[in-house]
UniProtKB/TrEMBL annotation:
InterPro entries: Ankyrin_rpt (IPR002110), Ankyrin_rpt-contain_sf (IPR036770)
Sorted UniProt keywords: ANK repeat, Repeat
Record has Repeat as a keyword: yes
Name of this chain's protein: Uncharacterized protein
High-level lineage: Eukaryota, Fungi, Dikarya, Basidiomycota, Agaricomycotina
PANTHER family documented for this protein: ANK_REP_REGION DOMAIN-CONTAINING PROTEIN, ANKYRIN REPEAT, PH AND SEC7 DOMAIN CONTAINING PROTEIN SECG-RELATED
Length: 267
C-alpha cells in the first residue's frame, strides 16, 4: 500500500483510516502474528504520513481504539504515544482513552496510560472519573494494581461524585462487585448517602447482591445509600419479605435494623 503511494487518509464507511485499523487489530479471528505486528505496522504508516489524531465517525482516534477490542499491546500504545498521540483527546461522547479503558475494564491499559502521562482526574460528560469504573476493572487480575495506580495520583478524590451523586463505591455497590467494594473501602471510600433512584427495583437489586458471597455486606451498603426495607419491588415483595422468602436470617436482621417506625402491614 505504502510502496504504491496509496492515500493513507481515505476513511472507510465508519470514518476509520488505515492507522485506526492498525491500532484496532486483533479482533476475533485475527492471527496472533497480526496482533504482535501492530506496532511495526503503525510505525510504517506514521512514517508514511498517516494522521495520528484522525477521528472516526465516533470521534475515536487510533489511541482510543488501541484497546477497544479487549486486548492490549503495550508496544502498540507506546508507539502511538511516542509519535505524539494526544492522551486527553475526547471522542464524540466526551471520553478520553483512559476513561474508555476504565469503562471496558482493561486494567493493563489503564496502568500503561497512567505510566505515560494520562490524567486520571479526567471526567466523562456525566462527571465520572476512571475510579467510577472500579467495578469493571476488578474483573481483570490487574484490577487492584490499576486502582492503586489511580489512587496514587495527587489530588485524586476517591469519593468524587458523578452528575447523579454517585461515588465510585456507590457504583461498585449497585453492580454487586464485592472485589471492588473491598478495594475501595480499604482505601477509605464512602458510599453516596441518600442516593437510591426510584427507578431501581430494590428487591431485584437485593436478589443480585445475595448471589455474592458478600451479599449481606452489599445489602448494608445499599441501605446506607437509601434502600428502604418497606419499598415494594416489581414482584410485589418488600426487601424484608424477600429476605424471609430466601430464608436469610443475616439479611433479615440487617433490614430490620433499618425499620424504625415501620408497621407490620408495610413489612
Amino acid at each position: 500500500m505504502i510502496e504504491l503511494n496509496a492515500n493513507l487518509h481515505i476513511p472507510d464507511e465508519v470514518g476509520r483510516q488505515p492507522l485506526h485499523h492498525a491500532a484496532y487489530w486483533s479482533h476475533a479471528g485475527a492471527i496472533k502474528g497480526s496482533f504482535d505486528a501492530r506496532p511495526a505496522i503503525m510505525r510504517l504508516l506514521l512514517d508514511a504520513g498517516a494522521e495520528l489524531e484522525a477521528k472516526d465517525n465516533n470521534g475515536d482516534t487510533p489511541l482510543s481504539l488501541a484497546n477497544e477490542n479487549g486486548r492490549v499491546s503495550s508496544s502498540a500504545i507506546r508507539a502511538l504515544v511516542e509519535a505524539g498521540a494526544e492522551l486527553g483527546a475526547q471522542n464524540a461522547y466526551g471520553n478520553t482513552p483512559l476513561l474508555l479503558s476504565a469503562m471496558q475494564g482493561s486494567a493493563p491499559t489503564v496502568r500503561l496510560l497512567l505510566l505515560v502521562g494520562a490524567d486520571p482526574r479526567s471526567r466523562s460528560p456525566n462527571r465520572s472519573t476512571p475510579l467510577h469504573f472500579a467495578f469493571a476493572l476488578m474483573g481483570h487480575p490487574e484490577g487492584p494494581a490499576a486502582i492503586s495506580a489511580l489512587l496514587a495520583t495527587v489530588g485524586m478524590d476517591i469519593n468524587a461524585k458523578d452528575r447523579d451523586g454517585r461515588t465510585p463505591l456507590c457504583r461498585a455497590v449497585f453492580h454487586g462487585s464485592s472485589p471492588a467494594i473491598r478495594v475501595l473501602q480499604g482505601a477509605g471510600a464512602q458510599p453516596s448517602p441518600r442516593y437510591f433512584p426510584s427507578s431501581v427495583d430494590p428487591v431485584q437489586l437485593l436478589a443480585e447482591a445475595m448471589r455474592n458471597e458478600d451479599g449481606v455486606q452489599i445489602a448494608d451498603l445499599l441501605l446506607q445509600t437509601g434502600l428502604k426495607p418497606d419499598a415494594r419491588g416489581a414482584s410485589g415483595l418488600t426487601p424484608i419479605q424477600f429476605a424471609i422468602s430466601i430464608r436469610s436470617l443475616p439479611l433479615l436482621r440487617r433490614l430490620l435494623s433499618h425499620t424504625v417506625g415501620l408497621s407490620v402491614r408495610s413489612m
